[in-house]
Fold this protein.
Amino acid sequence: MHRFVTSHSVVLAVSVFAASAACSVALAAPAPPPDFTCGVTVFTQCNQTAHFSSMSEELTPLAPTSESGCPAFVLNDYGDLEASGNGIEHSIVNKAGDGWFTSTFTGTATITPYLDAGLTTADPSVLPFTGHLTEWFGGSFNRSNMVDHGTFHFHGTDANGNSLDITDISHFNTNAANPFGPPNSFEITHCG
């Protein structure tokens, strides 16, 4: 199970590319998560920070590689990740329409494997895993370039004492010669 890019980072990436238009006065910094708009719906100059204590993600199957050491359900199943802990998100769009964002979260998480993308049929052969999650992602965007990085680390156990360790590092970028073309990317995943 793997998290490519959260939906917020995709929305922000598209938004900041579209944001290379007009600029105005910067916004005040702290915002509750539902009011976090900088680079999401506000495309003029802004600077916001939001703190959050829970998060949900849908995890997708991991592309099979012999080097990952991941169990079959990580390679084949979808997953529901529910977490509580400490998170912070920050976003900036400057006068030129360039943008940066970062998000960090650490806390307790439960990953429940599912057989389908709609998360309607739990995998009957795999119990949910509960443990510690640390996740970071960030990116920067301007008229010519885009970069996105992410790290994901989960260590947990199921009710039978089986453990699951997943570490994922991902990166993609475009360049000035072809800003909307195929990205240069890599992903390194390891289970232990």
In short: Strands lie at 46-59, 78-93, 99-114, 129-141, 146-157, 163-174, 184-191. The helical segments are 7-18, 72-76. The chain is about 10% helix and 45% strand. The two ends are 13 Å apart (CA to CA).
